Amino acid sequence: MNDYLSLKDHVYKYIVEQINNGNLIAGSKVNENAIGESLKVSRTPVREALIQLSSEGILENVPRKGFVIKKLSTEEAKENYFIIGALDGLAATLAAPLLTEKHIREMEFYIQSIDLAINTENFEMYHKMQEAFHGVYLSVCPNKNLVDLLLQYKKKFLKNFVAADQTEWLKKALLETNNEHRKMMELLRNGDFADLERFMRDVHWNINKGEVIPL
Description:
Layout: H1 2-20, H2 32-39, H3 43-55, E1 59-62, E2 66-69, H4 74-95, H5 101-119, H6 123-140, H7 144-154, H8 167-190, H9 193-204
Antiparallel strand pairs: 1-2
Helix pairs in contact: 1-3, 4-7, 4-9, 5-6, 5-8, 8-9
């Protein structure tokens, strides 16, 4: 049974990676047979992974069409930003007293790496570095159920890949977001944990950013 679950989780991870890499985009159908052949697994673990992704709101099971990558409406995106802001702010506040100087330096390193990724237009690396930045404090947050719920909501946002003529706009937006990371570090270092929670909820995850700025 554990081997089966492990196989299903492997398929689940593969599909999420395909979405994050832009190989599967919103509105596209997930080819179950192709996934099974690519991973050399039977239909059952593929189906189970798709059902889980559907229950998490990442896929939609469309009658007579199958599983499709779900695109959030603007209203859904704003609602999710509201929830993520509350959860992420609380997670950071709970983790803050447990962060060591090593954790702080690691987060500052990721901020510099994010700037480099943006300026070189390496947006895939940007996504990896910003996930690593948030991952530092989430890894020490003592409430693991809260973190799991937060990550589940974050997965509903597909990585945004923009056209060439939107690159400058995207770079500006991401640099502004990274400056918010710097503000978070300032509040962390000063021990302003209540202000940190409010900043993450009301600014970093402002609902008006929903579906506009990539996570």
